[in-house]
Design a protein that fits this description.
single chain, C2_DOCK-type_domain, 10-stranded mixed sheet, small GTPase binding, elongated, DOCK, disordered C terminus, Dedicator of cytokinesis protein 1, 12 helices, Immunoglobulin-like
Length: 622
């Protein structure tokens, strides 16, 4: 019985501990080069691929043969694993760089260890993206270029020579089949990449402090809420530019009647991450705004009994988080987290009409001091992350994140769109309206109910989300201002309409007047409605701009039939439709704004933020 040549690549499936002088210890996952096989097929002889000095025999049943290919290096022929050459290079590099990383750590060379550690993390993440192959070819190609740039950066940090690469794919070129002049050009361009601030795809360009090329994230954990809630309440958090323009969607937590949210173990505390902030965003006056809405009686100081709960403005809080972002920008302590107390200001009936902008009074210190209740506050922990994907942050500091940590997205496009980041979100901001008294002697208590309806009039279930962490619902209910015919809500919610139902979907906005001692069913108090189609007749998403929606009376059955009102009544001023099956009150309307990209509103109105991802997929030729 003898040995025969094998010349194969294998991977270890089980651990094998050497018991004899000629045996080789292998571990699960080791890549092995099989030089020879025993005729009986029971044993193999070879070495660990990336540690050729370790040679010996090992059981054939402990390994699995992999596809391989041969490559000529000068006069020598070597066998390497088959597959994407860049993946093979990344895998081999990670095995070699780990020894350099360990050496720097033992020597205490922190200034050299840290950049190498982060660069290796990036290689792991780019390699994972390539292995999964669950994205577009264009995105994969971009990932390969970034991976090759990261590998070159590590080689530069390690003092290794740069590898000549194909500039289009990032793959190493075959030096045996490439002319000397072409190799010189590739080396020249690659060396220029390592020092240029403007060459696309290089790691150095990604790591320098560019004003518009990085993503920033703000982690927020709610440690405690020090306030006695006498009614069920909703607490919304969102980021705002200058306290005026909403930057992110809202994050929601709920508080039950009579509850305090006292400090718990870190794993039980509510938390979220405001993602995809741009460098321009964090350089402006950026605030964390809190709005509290109670669900209960119309007036808290009255003892009357009501069968219904009304969403009523209650309190606000606001923090300037720009200082947190700037402090973290210069901090290199990964575990650093800042605890801040946010005072709460009760708006009361005197300030409730300005509830949507009441936090501006707090910022400007005008008219809000009297609403501050001593001892009422929310304790928050804040931590900013810069220039990293969120997946990398989770790996670096896993103790901050739990399964319940919610991602709170920026409204519109981030500065950098990463491969695989596809969002089909439609954000609707209910800004305000103008209504007449009608037959009432006092002004109305207006409540707005929004449904997503298909062409048959059926309400699409679970199509509305009031904020991150909220359960999808079939209806969104606005909060109510007491005796106010010109309410300004500024409430943002998200539409999660199944993609196939978008062409036939529209928003039906029903207006209700509710008495403070409401005893009848709410549907009997609907006095008007408006509607807004999600998609235009030509197949495009509703256009960018202000939409002043017309309000119609709800008398008769026509207002519940989309086939009647959507084809014979205009939804907004300027529509060409002439026939009207519902009566329009000239003094009543709702304004709307559609924004398919990030921007600041120029006037009051319902503001609808449409993510361009949805527009592109629905109408790809545009």
């Amino acid at each position: 019985m003898g040995w025969r040549p094998a010349d194969k690549i294998a991977v270890a499936l089980h651990n094998f501990k050497a018991n004899g002088v000629h045996q080789l210890t292998v571990h699960i996952g080791d890549l092995l080069y099989v030089q020879e096989e025993l005729d009986s097929g029971e044993w193999c002889r070879g070495y660990i691929f990336y540690e050729p000095s370790k040679r010996g025999i090992f059981p054939a049943s402990y390994i699995s043969i992999k596809e391989s290919t041969s490559r000529n290096i000068g006069s020598e022929r070597i066998v390497v694993p088959a597959g994407d050459e860049l993946l093979v290079e990344a895998t081999q590099g990670l095995r070699e760089w780990r020894w350099k990383l360990r050496e720097l750590y033992v020597r205490g060379s922190r200034e050299r260890w840290r950049p190498l550690y982060h660069a290796m993390e990036e290689v792991v993440n780019w390699r994972r993206t390539l292995v999964s192959s669950n994205t577009t070819l264009e995105a994969l190609q971009e990932t390969k270029v970034k991976l090759s740039a990261t590998i070159d950066e590590i080689n530069r940090l390690s003092g290794c020579p740069l590898t000549p690469r194909d500039p289009a794919t990032g793959a190493a070129v075959d030096s045996q089949n490439t002319s000397i002049l072409e190799l010189w050009r590739l080396h020249r361009d690659r060396r220029a990449d390592s020092t240029s601030d403007h060459t696309p795809g290089t790691l150095r360009r990604q790591r320098k402090a560019q004003p518009h090329g990085h993503l920033h994230h703000l982690f927020m954990r709610i440690d405690s809420v020090d306030h006695p809630f006498t009614e069920n309440s909703e607490i919304f958090f969102f980021l705002s530019i200058g306290g005026k323009d909403q930057l992110s969607e809202r994050y929601l937590i709920t508080m039950a009647k009579g509850s305090y949210r006292q400090p718990k173990s870190i794993g039980e505390r509510k938390s979220c991450v405001f993602t995809d902030l741009g460098s321009k965003d964090i350089e402006t006056d950026i605030y964390l705004v809190c709005q509290i809405v109670r669900n209960g009686k119309m007036l808290q100081d009255k003892k009357y009994h009501s069968q219904h709960s009304f969403r009523r403005p209650y309190a606000v809080g606001v923090l300037d988080v720009r200082t947190v972002l700037q402090e973290q920008e210069s901090s290199e302590t990964a575990e650093h987290i800042k605890t801040i107390t946010m005072p709460l200001y009760l708006c009361g009936t005197n300030h409730e009409s300005n509830f949507a902008t009441f936090h501006l009074n707090v910022i400007q210190k005008t008219g809000a001091k009297g609403g501050q209740k001593p001892g009422c506050a929310i304790a928050l922990s804040l931590r900013a992350f810069h220039r990293k994907q969120l997946s990398v942050v989770r790996m670096e500091i896993p103790m901050l994140f739990t399964k319940a940590t919610e991602m709170v997205h920026k409204l519109g496009f981030p500065d950098v769109i990463l491969p695989g980041d596809a969002r089909n979100d439609i954000y609707v901001t209910l800004e305000g309206g103008s209504f007449s008294k009608g037959t009432k002697t006092a002004e109305r208590n207006v409540e707005v109910a929004v449904n997503v309806v298909d062409k048959s009039g059926t309400v699409i279930p679970r199509a509305i989300v009031s904020g991150a962490a909220a359960t999808p619902s079939h209806e969104y209910i606005s909060y109510i201002f007491y005796h106010n015919n010109n309410p300004r809500w500024k409430e943002t919610f998200k539409l999660v309409i199944p993609f196939e139902k978008v062409p036939d979907a529209h928003l039906r906005i029903v207006l209700r007047h509710l008495a403070k001692d409401e005893s009848k069913d709410k549907s009997e108090k609907s006095f008007a409605f408006a509607y807004l189609k999600v998609m235009n007749d030509n197949g495009s998403i509703i256009s960018d701009g202000t939409h002043e929606l017309l309000v119609y009376e709800t008398g008769g059955k026509k207002w519940t039939d989309p086939a009647a009102y959507s084809s014979q009544t205009p939804q907004s001023r300027g529509d060409d439709t002439e026939l009207r099956v519902c009566h329009h009150e000239r003094e009543e309307d709702i304004e709307g704004r559609v924004k398919p990209r990030p921007g600041r509103p120029q006037r009051q109105g319902d503001r609808y933020h449409i993510n361009p991802h949805l527009l592109h997929q629905a109408h790809p030729e545009n």
